[in-house]
Write a structure and sequence with these properties.
binds uridine-5'-diphosphate, Anaerobic Ribonucleotide-triphosphate Reductase Large Chain, globular, about 15% strand, ten-stranded mixed β-sheet, two-stranded antiparallel sheet
Length: about 550
């Protein structure tokens, strides 16, 4: 097994390694990878596969940190829990029964390490009539607070923080309340918010026409608003708090692989997986930084890892149990998996390509196109061995494939720490910093250390000075070419964040987790312009974070979704 750094060891010990009833850790990191590999590979038996050989290959790809499945798989595979997916979407209908059913399902999912997303768009607006009691409805935002409190309580028991995505359609009469909800401190702390827009909304903006807000219970137009002013309110709140993000539902629906099963109205908490109600998705990420040969991408190795990754995730679906029967049924029908990438910035450093350059967008495009093509080749092969996913025939896929989707770019908040690489496709935030989780983790960029040492600089002295700094561009002692390779999220212009996100999205079935960082001096109009550009680039969603904003984002000690 490749050696683990001290950050990875700490994270594993605190969160992932199995413990006995007294709380003692009873497993080594290598035993963890063996436990997961053995459990997943046991799925091969049903298809006549070679269980032992597969187990050895799964173990190797994880132990070498070439590919890691999402945290619930690492924590739960081969244990009593056995719930392996990170991402869920639950339906919420306009009734007390449905709301509280979703609440109890949410509690079970959070307990097992999954995150939940919901569309609250069907709930009648605040002040509407309640037939049964003759009372007055309290509206979606007030019900979201119940989900938030439940999440807060369950969090204390589990190893992982429960996280939620709350979505409201922009035509809902409570949209302004929703959009402004996180303006107050400590409200909806366990939620990310996304306002769901569609073509009708953007067309109304373009045409300069009023936009209808509709009561979902009666389909009646309640009032008309100026869509431009509404967009400005969204931008204002995002400027202030980082929330809400914007979803482009029409772009999402256009990529829905199984439209006959229903429409997509929501995503998981960090936005990278749009799902049907009751769907779940197992994710896993390829560590790009471990697929470099000299100063080029090791394409052969990457191909092998992606094929193995799809197999790992398809076996994970086979092995996973789900806390709600409806979810088990839906997952069995669509078998969505999400192979993604992490360590993208590290890869760029190894290729000597600055994140802020046009060449970085070309690398993004080339790498993700390759991952996507190979992931589909792997899914086609699995379909030959095991049959296509049951809903395939009525899906948009022409050739038989095993999975309705194969690719997703996740944030990889924790698994990138285990792999010791930069998170997802994000640029780095600092070259050395304290990550305020698990009692504080000291993180330093090894590539930066190597490079400055090779130039004869004292890395220890330098890092002390650079600790927690969000840019190194003003440090005279660092050579310019090194500075260019270690541009941080704060150094990069929003258009570059968007260009990289768009390059990945062009070759990703699901969505791409990415935060567009803005300087503290950015205006509300700048945020609005990011939203418009994101739409022009055919993104499925967009999240901004302005330096110095009051972070309301969940999972956000480094602001991201
Ligand atoms: N997630 C969650 N709680 C957490 C972190 C993540 O529920 O504390 C879910 C959420 O759906 C998120 C997904 O896991 O979108 C993937 O997040 P990430 O890639 O950061 O997870 P990792 O596998 O690295 O732990």
């Amino acid at each position: 097994m490749a050696s683990l750094d001290s950050v990875a060891r700490t994270v594993l010990r605190r969160r992932y390694l199995r413990r006995d009833e007294t709380g003692e850790v009873v497993e080594t990191p290598d035993e963890l990878f063996h436990r997961v590999a053995a459990d997943l590979a046991s799925a091969e038996a049903a298809f006549g596969g070679d269980v032992d050989a597969t187990e050895a290959r799964f173990h190797e790809v994880m132990a070498e940190r070439l590919f890691l499945p999402n945290s619930p798989t690492l924590m739960n595979a081969g244990t009593d829990l056995q719930q392996l997916a990170a991402c869920f979407v639950l339906p919420v209908e306009d009734s007390i029964e449905s709301i509280f059913e979703a609440l109890s399902q949410t509690a079970c999912i959070h307990q097992s390490g999954g995150g939940t997303g919901f569309s609250f768009s069907k709930l009648r607006p605040e002040g509407d009539v309640v037939g049964k009691t003759g009372g007055v409805a309290s509206g979606p935002v007030s019900f979201m607070q119940i989900f938030d409190s439940a999440t807060e309580q369950i969090k204390q028991g589990g190893r992982r923080r429960g996280a939620n995505m709350g979505v409201l359609h922009v035509s809902h009469p409570d949209v302004e309340t929703f959009v402004s909800a996180k303006g107050e401190a400590d409200v909806l702390r366990n939620f990310n918010l996304s306002v769901a827009t569609d073509a009708a909304f953007w067309d109304a903006i373009d045409a300069g026409e009023p936009y209808d807000l509709v009561n979902p219970r009666t389909d009646e137009i309640v009032r008309q608003v100026d869509p431009e002013a509404l967009l400005e309110l969204v931008a204002e709140m995002a400027w202030e708090t980082g929330d809400p993000g914007v979803l482009f539902l029409d772009t999402i629906e256009a990529a829905n692989p199984t439209p006959q099963l229903g429409h997509i109205e929501a995503t998981n908490p960090c936005g990278e997986v749009p799902l049907l109600p009751y769907e779940a998705c197992v994710l896993g990420s390829v560590n790009l930084a471990a697929h470099v040969d000299g100063e080029t991408v090791d394409w052969d190795r990457l191909r092998e890892t992606v094929h193995l990754g799809v197999r790992v995730l398809d076996d994970a679906i086979e092995r996973s149990t789900f806390p709600v029967p409806e979810i088990a049924e839906r997952v069995a029908e669509t078998r969505k998996v999400g192979v993604g990438v992490m360590g993208f910035h590290d890869l760029l450093v190894d290729l000597r390509v600055p994140y802020g350059s046009p060449a970085a967008v070309e690398v993004a495009e080339a790498v993700m196109r390759f991952v996507h093509d190979e992931a589909w080749a792997a899914s086609r092969q699995l379909a030959e061995e095991r049959g296509p996913f049951p809903a395939w025939e009525s899906s948009v896929h022409e050739t038989p494939v095993r999975n309705a989707t194969t690719t997703t770019v996740a944030p990889t908040g924790t698994i990138s720490l285990l792999a010791g690489c930069s998170a997802g496709i994000e640029p780095i935030y600092n070259v050395a910093y304290t990550k305020h989780v698990l009692g504080g983790l000291e993180i330093r960029n090894d590539r930066f250390v190597d490079m400055v040492e090779a130039r004869g600089l004292d890395a220890e002295v330098l890092l002390e000075d650079l600790h927690d700094r969000t840019t190194i561009q003003d440090v005279e002692s660092i050579p310019d070419d090194v500075k260019r390779l270690f541009q941080t999220a704060h150094d990069l212009p929003p258009r570059q964040h968007l260009a990289v996100q768009a390059a990945f999205q062009r070759h990703t079935d699901n969505a791409v987790s990415k935060t567009v960082n803005l300087p503290a001096s950015a205006s509300v109009a700048d945020v609005e312009s990011v939203f418009r550009t994101a739409r022009e680039l055919d993104l499925k969603g967009v999240t901004v974070f302005r330096s110095g904003a009051s972070t309301g984002q969940v999972l956000g000690e480094a602001p991201r979704r």
